[in-house]
Design goal:
Layout lengths: L1 E9 L3 H18 L3 E6 L4 H7 L7 H5 L4 E6 L7 H15 L4 E7 L15 E7 L3 E10 L7 E7 L2 H17 L3 E6 L7 H13 L6 E6 H10 L6 E4 L1 H14 L7 E6 L2 E8 L16 H13 L3 H15 L15 H12 L1
Parallel strand pairs: 1-2, 1-3, 3-12, 5-10, 8-9, 8-10
Antiparallel strand pairs: 4-5, 4-11, 6-7, 11-12
The structure holds adenosine-5'-triphosphate and magnesium ion.
Length: 348
């Protein structure tokens, strides 16, 4: 089998973690009798300085025949953040209609977490990726005047909630069969009550999934006090954004958190570490490549190579058991290269 993917290393530590990840993905695929065919795309900050845009106008078309896209990060000090974030990653998510954002978080043997005792976290945040509080609806009124207003309208639509909910229920079936819908429907009476109603309707078709409704404030407390037992969390755009950073830090930090942006049932998705370009550590050889490698494992899994994905995850777990392989963000003094070589050696 030949798996065609596209790779956008981007800026900052993006190219460093992608360079550490690709050999691991190649080796894992090869061990399962598959070959990766990689289209390398030089999109990002440098492309923006050269051409005035971070990616070409026909970007979505260029990646459309690929099974998936692996993305590093964008952001550099001499280009305004929004040019790159909106011009590349958000534009690409919209053009490919990637409506669901998946953020699995788990704790790893050998990696100390921010939790006091209950260290077992293994959950999946399914975040609606296109609307809610980030719909971009609103405006500023009476600019610069004493009564100035900033109005931000949250938009929640039934088809988009349904799409995210079906994805979450199916994910729960493949995991431990528990789903928590996270809302704030006691205080926000229109959008989140629609979430409650739609999810209740859909739950009927998934009798094997145990579904509870949890308010976001209670969920934040529970993730810290008693994360054990949480499985799939279905969240709106804003709550998913906040809770996934919280979960990532609880389980070892931003350097450990992978994600996938997918259009349920369709390719290609974009697989990327949750972290950004991390300009403070660029070029020092200490970026943690695990978030990117785990994103690569999600890519392999969704592209029909679940055994190759398992190889990557197992090799990461083995490498992390030895503190000498830990990068500084998880309390060690190891380098990107050392950790990458340890994982590569374990992939087989
Ligand atoms: P961006 O604007 O691109 O989001 P940022 O400055 O917000 O970049 P992030 O990458 O989001 O930086 O992460 C915040 C901080 O976390 C970084 O400055 C860095 O110190 C640390 N960090 C993030 N990712 C990693 C990683 N993979 N390895 C080690 N440290 C990391
Ligand atoms: Mg950031």
């Amino acid at each position: 089998m030949k798996l065609k993917i596209a790779v956008i290393p981007g800026d900052g530590i993006g190219p460093e973690v992608v360079a550490a990840t690709l050999p691991v993905l190649h080796a894992a695929a090869r061990a399962e009798g598959a070959e990766l065919d990689v289209l390398d795309l030089d999109w990002g900050g440098e492309h923006h300085l050269r051409t005035g845009a971070p990616m070409p106008a026909d970007a979505a078309e260029i990646v459309s025949d690929r099974a998936a896209v692996l993305f590093g990060a964008v952001g550099r000090p001499d280009v305004p953040d929004h040019e790159l974030v909106w011009g590349l990653i958000i534009a690409l998510r919209q053009q490919l209609d990637l409506a669901v954002n998946l953020r699995p978080v788990r704790s790893w043997d050998g990696v100390t977490t921010a939790l006091r005792d209950d260290r077992d976290i293994d959950l999946l945040i399914v975040r609606e990726n296109t609307e809610g509080e980030y719909a971009g609806v609103g405006g500023r009124v009476h600019r610069g005047r004493p009564g100035e207003l900033g109005v931000e309208v949250a938009v929640h639509s039934r088809p988009v909630i349904e799409r995210a909910a079906h994805h979450a229920f199916r994910a729960a079936q493949a995991r431990s069969g528990r789903l928590a819908l996270v809302t704030k429907s006691n205080a926000m009476r229109f959008g989140y009550t629609l979430w409650d109603a739609v999810v209740e309707e859909i739950a009927v078709s998934y009798p094997d999934v145990e579904c509870e409704h949890v308010l976001v404030d209670a969920m934040a407390a529970r993730m810290i006090q008693k994360p054990r037992g949480l499985d799939v969390l279905l969240c709106s755009n804003l709550f998913g954004d906040i809770l996934s950073d919280l979960a990532a830090v609880l389980a070892g930090g931003m350097g450990m958190a992978p994600s996938a942006n997918v259009a349920p049932g369709r390719a290609p998705g974009i697989y990327e570490p949750v972290h950004g370009s991390a300009p403070d550590i660029v070029g020092r050889g200490v970026a943690n490549p695990v978030a990117c490698m785990l994103s690569g494992a999600m890519l392999l899994e969704d592209s029909g190579l679940p055994n190759a994905a398992a190889r990557v995850r197992d090799a990461i777990a083995d490498a992390l058991r030895d503190p000498a392989n830990h990068t500084p963000d998880i309390g060690g003094s190891g380098t990107t290269t050392r950790l990458a070589e340890a994982v590569l050696g374990g992939v087989g």
